[in-house]
C-alpha cells in the first residue's frame, strides 16, 4: 500500500473512530529529587580540600633550589646506589 498524503492517513483514523489524544502532564505535582550518599559527600569534601592545596611543597623545593644555585648540593654516590638497589629489589 502506498500512502500519498497525510490527509488520506488522517481520514483512515477518523473513519475507524480512532483518535489520537495528546494529554498534558501535571508538572506542578512532580518534583525531581537528588540524594547523595555519605561516601559521595565525603569524596566531594576531600576533592575540594585537595583542590585547595598546592601541588608543590615550596618549603622543600626552595631548600633544594638554594643549594643548587649556591653549588652546595651534594649527592652521596653511596646513598644514591643504595636507593637504586632498594627500588630494584622492590620490583
Describe this structure in words.
It is a single chain. The chain is an all-alpha fold.
Give the oligomeric state: single chain
Could you describe the largest sheet, including whether it forms a barrel?
A: none
Write the H/E string, N to C: HHHH
Shape: elongated
Which band does the percent of strand residues land in? under 5%
Kindly state the percentage of residues in helix. 55-70%
Overall average pLDDT: 79
The low-pLDDT segments are none
Contiguous helical run count = 4
Say how many strands there are. Answer: 0
Helix-strand makeup class = mainly alpha
Give a brief outline of the structure.
The chain is mainly alpha-helical. It has helices at 6-15, 38-52, 58-70, 77-90.
Supply database-style keywords:
91 residues; mainly alpha; 4 helices
SSE topology:
Blueprint: H1 6-15, H2 38-52, H3 58-70, H4 77-90
Amino acid at each position: 500500500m502506498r500512502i500519498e498524503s497525510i490527509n488520506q492517513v488522517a481520514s483512515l483514523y477518523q473513519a475507524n473512530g480512532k483518535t489520537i489524544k495528546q494529554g498534558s502532564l501535571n508538572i506542578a505535582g512532580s518534583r525531581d529529587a537528588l540524594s547523595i550518599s555519605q561516601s559521595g559527600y565525603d569524596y566531594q569534601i576531600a576533592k575540594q580540600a585537595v583542590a585547595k592545596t598546592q601541588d608543590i611543597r615550596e618549603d622543600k623545593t626552595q631548600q633544594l633550589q638554594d643549594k643548587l644555585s649556591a653549588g652546595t648540593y651534594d649527592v652521596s654516590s653511596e646513598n644514591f646506589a643504595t636507593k637504586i638497589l632498594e627500588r630494584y629489589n622492590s620490583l
